[in-house]
């Protein structure tokens, strides 16, 4: 592909010289790009004022190691994971279709598309088995899903659209994913701007926050909860603004390297956090939030955070499922306002 582009350029140059026309700027060539699992691609030079940046055929690798080749800018993206909604919002794009449940919830949140999020075409089925018929009907250029959840869809989507699977476990992974999708969609400038906004916000928060509060994120659907450790996605944000001592002590407790481990109230009492953020997941209409279920245990009331009224149920579709830079920015804003209300008042 690179050789063919060079040949075309050479023919055009010879023709231009024969016609004695002035030459414009010559186009450079770049190495193949890697996706969210690899180092960040170099940013392209900004196009001259009044010109459009030429899209170069691009090859990326997703988090499963699958190679995805794109020869024209991706315009229609079907989202079967919330991370997809996050990145499209950052790039100023809209999904061509949405899976239901949490994906629809985040799309309809005010920080994303608001009420317009209710109008995007629906992809039926379950989270782990979205409807292939609906995906085909939406005629996407790209489908974005979650590694470990949607891997089996790749064969079914063959000949329909490439499938990009991601699973960021650090905010740097989310940044690389943003840049990669920016490359595939021809939205490199939008990706660079979103990256800068996020990093500037995180740096300013880290410099201003006193980090004298011990924070904790837990998640679950019942009393069998798990802790997001400092190597989990949310933990990589929290350790920048707070005392966040939670870690994976035994590799077997975190076999997939996601940075989350099962916990008990007895173990929680050892560190005794000042503030607890709770991501509750409900699988039935009448399910109580996790904090209310844990409150039925006598041990819960012994925690400092409980005694001081510092247990906060958060928006799990954004905090837990969003995974992208916009969701992490929302997490950052909301957690700072709770941890240090005098320094970071709610807007």
TrEMBL record:
It comes from the Bacteria. It is found in: Cell envelope. SUPFAM superfamilies: Helical backbone' metal receptor. Residues 1-21 form the signal peptide. Residues 31-52 have a biased composition (Low complexity). Residues 31-59 are annotated as: Disordered. Residues 76-343 form the Fe/B12 periplasmic-binding domain. The keyword Signal applies. Keywords: Signal, Transport. Pfam families: Peripla_BP_2 (PF01497). One of its GO terms (cellular component) is outer membrane-bounded periplasmic space. One of its GO terms (biological process) is iron coordination entity transport. Belongs to the bacterial solute-binding protein 8 family. This is ABC transporter substrate-binding protein. It comes from Paenibacillus arenilitoris.
């Amino acid at each position: 592909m690179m050789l063919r582009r060079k040949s075309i350029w050479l023919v055009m140059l010879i023709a231009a010289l024969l016609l004695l026309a002035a030459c414009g700027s010559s186009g450079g060539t770049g190495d193949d790009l890697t996706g969210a699992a690899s180092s960040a691609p170099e940013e392209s030079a900004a196009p001259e004022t009044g010109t459009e940046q030429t899209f170069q055929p691009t090859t990326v690798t997703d988090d499963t190691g699958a190679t995805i080749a794109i020869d024209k800018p991706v315009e229609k993206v079907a989202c079967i994971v919330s991370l997809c909604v996050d990145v499209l919002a950052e790039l100023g794009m809209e999904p061509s279709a949405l899976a239901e449940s949490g994906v629809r919830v985040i799309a309809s949140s005010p920080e994303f598309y608001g009420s317009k999020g209710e109008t995007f075409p629906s992809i039926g089925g379950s989270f782990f088995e979205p409807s292939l018929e609906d995906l085909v009907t939406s005629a996407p250029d790209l489908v974005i899903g979650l590694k470990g959840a949607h891997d089996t869809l790749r064969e079914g989507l063959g000949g329909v659209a490439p499938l990009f699977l991601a699973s960021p476990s650090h905010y740097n992974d989310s940044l690389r994913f943003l840049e990669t999708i920016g490359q595939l969609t021809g939205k490199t400038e939008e990706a660079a701007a979103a990256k800068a906004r996020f990093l500037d916000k995180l740096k300013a928060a880290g410099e201003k926050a006193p980090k004298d509060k011990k924070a904790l994120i837990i998640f679950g659907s019942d009393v069998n909860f798990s802790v997001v450790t400092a190597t989990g996605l949310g933990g990589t944000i929290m350790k920048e603004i707070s005392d966040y001592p939670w870690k994976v002590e035994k590799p077997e407790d975190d076999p997939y390297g996601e940075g989350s481990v099962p916990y008990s109230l007895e173990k929680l009492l050892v560190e005794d956090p000042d503030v607890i953020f709770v991501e509750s997941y409900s699988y039935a209409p009448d399910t109580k939030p996790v904090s209310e279920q844990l409150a039925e245990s006598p041990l819960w009331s012994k925690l400092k955070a409980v005694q001081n009224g510092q247990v906060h149920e958060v928006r799990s579709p954004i905090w837990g499922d969003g995974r992208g830079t916009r969701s992490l920015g929302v997490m950052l804003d909301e957690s700072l306002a709770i941890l240090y209300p005098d320094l970071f008042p709610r807007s």
